[in-house]
Amino acid sequence: MPITKSNTNSLKKTDLLSLTLPQLQQWFVERGEPPFRAKQLFSWLYQRLVTDFSAMTNLPQSLRSQLAQEASIGPMVVRSEQHSKDDRTRKILLELDDGKLIESVLMLYPPIGESSVRATVCVSTQAGCAFGCTFCATGQMGFDRHLTAGEIVAQVLFFARELRDAPWSAKGLPGSAPIDHITNIVLMGMGEPLHNYDNVLQALRILNNLDGFNLGARHMTVSTVGLVPAIRKLSQEPLQVNLAISLHAPTDELRSQTMPINKKYPLEELLAACKDYIAATGRQVTFEYVLLAGVNDTAAHAHLLSELLVPLKQFAHVNCIPVNATSADYKSPSGESIRAFRNILFEHGVSNSVRAERGDDIAAACGQLRTRFEKNRNQQ
Ligand code: SAH
Ligand code: SF4
Description:
The chain is an alpha/beta fold. It has helices spanning 5-11, 21-30, 36-47, 61-70, 149-165, 197-208, 228-234, 252-258, 267-281, 299-309, 335-347, 368-379, and strands at 14-15, 71-72, 77-83, 89-95, 101-109, 118-122, 126-128, 143-146, 184-187, 220-224, 242-246, 285-291, 316-322, 351-354.
């Protein structure tokens, strides 16, 4: 049949990675199949990580053909993959089925001291972003669209397959067990997860399912620019994921300069929502603080930040992040100023850490790979 406007809709395949287990059961029932097919399929998709219906050998041949016609498994194309020199950071540029480009990053952490080996995927939740933070490469692109739950899930599965096929072990650490699966996800790629609330929560529920990928909620982190109503909503979810707030400035004046959302949800409202979140969940909140030399990294800023967070006691943790250079003119502070900044927080009893810089040779801050790729493409 020729493709005409009237039948293009019926040709649109169902992306199975967008469906929860109950939705998949319903999908099969609508097609006259028993609901147990959904669990079988979930196992193929999320435990065996297959990409092809023909591999699903416990499904009848006729059903496999029907699936191939009516459904898809995360349709997207990897346009570029880069590994850092030490192979601890891998970054992919994905082209979605409408041509939009997004990035995902895999970060591998060797076992150090008490903490075991980790493989963390940094996931994008939107193509572009509507919030325009001045230091952020994605923010400078503007907003294209929300990702579907399936497009979010597919990013995790890509790296899960890669590690399964070639487990990673840290160079220089002989004897450490290789890692062959994803242990954590952080929603810190392109986009604002809480602006795409329903699809993001759907994706997290799918990845959390015991019969499927079975990733614990405590291994998932949602990072937000500070959308107050959505933070309050998140505190009521049965799925208790980790929450990270992009704070980045201790006063409204400064925060509004670098993060326009602060004009809508100023610090007082944001901190009140965090307090309520802590009261509702009993969980610690991480405050991300991108250090911008000469802008938000002085001793005075460290004191103000401490004053803001001391009332949250042990429920606040600050993650200091030396800024990754983007096209905007920000510089990362010296190691010495970072230490001084952190010491002031410690003196106030505010728990904090510094994010190790990594992957600079492959444009680590999300949005940068796409920016570079598009520049090259435009020059061709
Ligand atoms: N939109 C969400 C999640 C994606 S950004 C948010 O803003 O929280 C993930 C984290 O990367 C945020 O804390 C963000 O502020 C930070 N970030 C953005 N640009 C950066 C840069 N150039 N260098 C370091 N961190 C950056
Ligand atoms: Fe969007 Fe987060 Fe970047 Fe701000 S930091 S522009 S909210 S992706």
